[in-house]
Amino acid sequence: MIQGVQLDLISEERLARLTSMEKIRLILDEVMAGNIVVLEKGLSPEESSRLIEMTMMEISPDGFAGIEMETYPARSQGGGLLARLFGNKESPSRLTVIGPANQLKMLRKERDLISAWVSSR
Amino acid sequence: MDILTKARKRLSRFLRVFFKKKRSRIGIYGPPNAGKTTLANRIVRDWTGDALGPVSEIPHETRRARRKEDVTITNGDGDSIVIDIVDTPGVTTKIDYHEFTEYGIEKEEAVKRAREATEGVAEAMHWLREDIDGVIYMLDATLDPFAQVNIMMVGIIESRNLPVVIVANKIDLPDASPARIKSAFPQHPVISISGLEGKNVDELYDKMIEFFG
Predict the structure, then answer these.
(1) Are B107 and A38 in contact (CB under 8 A)?
(2) Are B155 and A102 in contact (CB < 8 Å)?
(3) How far apart are CA B110 and CA B99, in angstroms?
(4) What pLDDT does A67 receive?
(5) Cβ-Cβ contacts under 8 Å, A66 against chain B
(6) Domain annotation covers residue B10
(7) Which end of chain A is more exposed for a tag (fewer CB within 10 A), N or C?
(8) Contacting residues for B171 by C-beta, under 8 A, at least 6 apart
(9) Minimum distance, in Å, between the CA of residue A1 and any CA atom of chain B
(10) Nearest-angstrom CA–CA distance, B112 and A61
(11) Is the ipTM of this complex over 0.95?
(12) Measuring CA to CA, which residue among B127, B117, B182, B180 is closest to residue B156?
């Protein structure tokens, strides 16, 4: 039987239709099933915080060991004093890859390149 | 110290007295083994004579957040702050009990540690959302600061509008590169220290008074 890894690329439009909890549940369900998830647009800081917390709740000995996750560093923010004064703090979230920690290994990460290695279970 | 900083400090003092603001809770955050407990112990020992928790080369030695109340930090100019220091478990997105067995810990104990570590990370995130007024973000200056967990954590801290001082720790080690950390987080003050040797911690105390006061 051919061994392989399922890769799910989720569009920005589909993500926009989901609530934060739906997004996190979708990611965790996929990753716990051994799949790699690529989000066209990354998570907000609040969603990242919840994802870390929920990932911790799902970890089990000899089972799920957590997630590996990479995204490009945020683009440098434009705007000067006025942008800061009026709270333009929303950092642009960018393409994000998430997978099981024991299957996805990041090889190289640069400002504009993420190189990863995926193993089947 | 520039005029704006002085004005901000005066305003902060006035508001604190006027509104009887509770003392700030300052969380020490960072990835596992960055030296968070070593720094927490140094701060608490320097200003109260106590200690906060045990340190170890084994990751996730701190698996519960620990708080020391009423720590008063004073600088040479007579400025001071009273804070609670919260030492938090190292934040990560993965924990495997085999990490602990590699250090010679038996499987049963390793599984227990891993479970406690997962609870500790969740607890640290909860503190950050609910109970922290400012953050010292600790990084091991010998490691890549662009690790995803650092990018995520600094993003989370920024989104909550918490004042943050980034600490480039372990500058006593030959391959430490605080410059790499400064280039990774140019939007925040970065203080280079050796928590173990106490090198440059006075500069950190000055910055804490300026930022968290």
Answers:
(1) no
(2) no
(3) 8
(4) 96
(5) 92-96
(6) no
(7) N
(8) B141, B178, B192, B193, B194, B199, B200
(9) 29
(10) 9
(11) no
(12) B127
For residue B17, being part of any structural domain is answered with: no
> Are the C-beta atoms of B197 and B172 separated by less than 8 Å?
yes
Sign for the CA dihedral angle at A11, A14, A19, A25 comes to: negative
Contacts of B181 in chain A (CB under 8 A): none
Shortest CA distance from B99: residue in chain A: A65
Q: In this predicted model, what pLDDT tens digit does every residue of B175-193 receive, in sequence order?
A: 999 999 999 999 999 999 9
Report how far residue B176's alpha carbon sits from residue B163's, in angstroms, rounded to the nearest whole number: 25
pLDDT in tens, B128-143: 988 999 999 999 999 9
What number is the average pLDDT over the span A90-104?
Answer: 83
Domain annotation covers residue B69: yes
Question: DSSP label at B94?
Answer: B
Q: Which tens digit of pLDDT belongs to each residue from A28-64?
A: 999 999 999 999 998 999 999 999 999 999 999 989 9
Which CATH number characterizes residue B156's domain? 3.40.50.300
B155 touches A at CB < 8 Å:
yes
The closest CB to that of B159, out of A46, A70, A73, belongs to A46
Q: Please give the model's pTM, rounded to 2 decimal places.
A: 0.85
Q: For residue B157, what are the CA distances in angstroms to A49, B39, B79, B85, B160? A: 10, 20, 26, 17, 5
Domain boundaries, given as residue ranges, for chain A: 7-118
Cβ separation of B93 and A67 shorter than 8 Å? yes
Contacts of B126 in chain A (CB under 8 A): 53
